[in-house]
What does this fold into?
Amino acid sequence: MKKLLFTILAGMLVASCMNKWDTESVDNDLYSAPNIGEPTTTIQQLRSTYASAISNSSYTQVTKDEVVEGIVTANDISGNIYQFIYIQPLAADGTLDTSEGGIGVGIKGIGCLYTLYPVGQRIRISLKDLYVGGYGQAPRIGMPYINTNGAMRMGPMTLDMMKKHVQKVGKPRPELVEAREVTAADLTAANITKLTPMLVVLKNAEIKDAGWPYAHWEVGGDTYSEYHDINIGGTTVKQLLYTSTSATFAGDTIQPGRKTIYGLLGRYSSSYQLSLRSIDDIIEQK
It folds into this structure.
């Protein structure tokens, strides 16, 4: 009987990390804040207000009662993105607004954020007592932390803070999320603030280093995250594709040939970084 009970409980635990939130009601979700009210600011207004902290890769605590809203475009489903989801603004008709970048929302204390925040999930964030800032000039909402060198950096909020400050609104609507097509000509220094972070698609693209893995390059027995050049429509953009060694596809071999590539276009300082959400973001062209 004890063995049967253990099996049932284990099955329930596994099921809790499966991406089934698109069919479950979130009205009484224990991982969602109660009703925090209507939005009072936009992602762009938020980024403008805290532009100095973002550009300085520092942080500032929000002291006003403000609520911002967005729709999830990327999460940690494959491990290539860690402790963050990314949201972008909604257009007037409720679809994704691809005219401007979004913001990262850091959350630690749970290893499968994608089950709570699948692509297409609309969320509202009560900002008071949270922090807005930057890491490598990438805009983020979260809390500061002490890194291994003893320095304070902008990082994710705790799970308890998430439960109080992040409200899910309705059920996921992935059909409302569309990627913005970008070309090599778009990826200029002048556009980096406007285009990041954003869900994008590259067409007629080719990843250099075919035959090598996306990551897991070994040096002295250690493995490292890796960057790859991408040729987009005949123009090569250096060091564009970034893959973490924690990604489930890190050891997969890069295939030669033209592809359609989706991903989260982010930044580190003045450099663009394209991160695949999963290996399904690569569509081989025949």
